[in-house]
Amino acid sequence: MSHSAISENIVEEHAENGDVKARRAFLAAAGAAGVCYAAALAYPVYRYLASPSEMALSASAVTEVTLKDAQKLPTGSVLMFKFGPSPAMLIHHENGQWVALTAVCTHLGCTVQYEPQMDRIHCACHGGVYNPYTGANVSGPPPKPLKLFKVAVNDAGVEVSRA
Length: 163
Ligand code: FES
Fold this sequence. Notes:
The protein is 36% helix and 30% strand.
């Protein structure tokens, strides 16, 4: 084999090695891009499917909420707030009693409202009625009472925690 033929072989081998490396690099990049693309598509689906359990998890993760300056809430009025992801209410009754409850109807999950003039908690969706002191389901379709929270009033605000 002549010297120039050997050189050509070496050049061809280098060229082939270069092609193989470039091909491998391209395939690796394409594979990584494919994984990223699949993850980008799958994540929203995962979030959608997992959201009820995640909501429950995040709801149970919250054990206490401090409502700054809520000690100034006048009697006969209500303060709506969030306990984790869920609406809740703090009622300062005319007799001075403080009551905090979930504001999620136990029927189909509508947000309930305190009606001081009627001395009740009412769900406008299907007419459910709850006792504003105990959360007991009084009438209408709600199958269970509203959950009560513990309430601690101090000079800085009101602390609401899981009972
Ligand atoms: S959701 Fe409240 S009564 Fe139906």
